[in-house]
UniProtKB/TrEMBL annotation:
The UniProt record lists the keyword Cell division: no
Name listed for the protein in its UniProt record: Phytanoyl-CoA dioxygenase
Species lineage: Bacteria, Pseudomonadati, Bacteroidota, Cytophagia, Cytophagales
UniProt KW Lipid biosynthesis keyword: no
Annotated GO MF terms: 2-oxoglutarate-dependent dioxygenase activity; iron ion binding
Naturally occurring in which organism (per UniProt): Arundinibacter roseus
Length: 271
């Protein structure tokens, strides 16, 4: 597959089945098979991996890390670091899927992040992403894109179905505390935890609780994510120190109440 074919695939509309939209709207997540080809994942995965290891600053031994640090190497806004990675992050195919699942007229990029769980990397505790985001509407969604097939022993993403509908743990960061709280609350949710095939992509709502197991394999679990928001999203007054930091870093300190329409948050798909 040549470069023009790769770009064509990234920007070709992908038809989201009506049942997938209905499932997402009810359960807060959906897994979609055969979204991306092995060729696209290999080409852009290699570029993303190069950038992760170029930009990573977490070099402490695993035994000296916090629970959060053991979970993954986390590198954000790679689209601003490398023009070809930007092609992947700006995929109209992936942004259209996000738009259709949320049933909005278009989406902006909040930011991207690579999440690389190293061999012997620990669990990613239960958490809801939107705890970190000073965004007024729940119309936010994350595309979780494994760059390799991800069997259970590599720590695929797991979802607490319908947990986006209840206000449990919305004041907790990713931590041992969030893991313990959700472990107590899990009896009221159905847990969905299955492997990811190569080319399979999941989307989950900002307030959906999710986690990932440890990586017991001898290879890194390489994942790229894009966080999208409704293009008509509004900035709210930050409610914690993390939202304050996000407001400055990812929203360019745009005014509270405004649409986040700086150069950092481009519209990636719109009808």
């Amino acid at each position: 597959m040549n470069k023009s074919d790769l770009l064509h695939e990234l920007n070709e509309p992908w038809t989201v089945p009506a049942e997938a939209i209905a499932f997402y709207q009810e359960y807060g997540y959906v897994k979609l098979k055969n979204v991306l080809s092995a060729e696209v994942l290999s080409y852009y995965g290699d570029l993303i991996t190069e950038q992760v290891f170029r930009l990573n600053t977490l070099i402490k031994p695993m035994e000296e890390r916090t629970t959060y640090e053991k979970a993954f190497l986390q590198i954000m806004n790679l689209w601003r670091e490398h023009d070809e990675v930007k092609e992947f992050v700006f995929s109209k195919c992936l942004a259209k899927i996000a738009t259709d699942l949320m049933q909005v007229r278009g989406v902006r990029l909040y930011h991207d992040q690579a999440l690389y769980k190293e061999p012997s990397g620990g669990i990613t505790p239960w958490h809801a992403d939107q705890f970190y985001w000073p965004l007024a509407s729940p119309n936010t969604i994350t595309a979780w894109i494994p760059l390799q097939a991800t069997p259970m022993h590599m720590g695929p993403l797991a979802f607490a179905e319908k947990s986006q509908l209840v206000e449990i743990g919305r004041d907790l960061q990713i931590s041992d505390e969030s893991e313990a709280l959700m472990a107590q609350q899990l009896t009221q949710f159905t847990l969905h935890e299955t492997p990811f095939e190569l080319g399979e992509v999941s989307y989950h709502a900002g307030w959906l609780f999710h986690r990932a197991g440890a990586n017991a394999s001898d290879a890194p679990r390489k994942v790229m994510t894009m966080i999208y928001m409704d293009q008509d999203q509004r900035i709210m007054q930050p409610r914690n120190e993390y939202q304050e930091a996000d407001w400055r870093t990812w929203l360019d300190s745009r005014p509270v109440g405004a649409i986040p329409d700086s150069a950092l948050n481009p519209v990636l798909f719109s009808y």
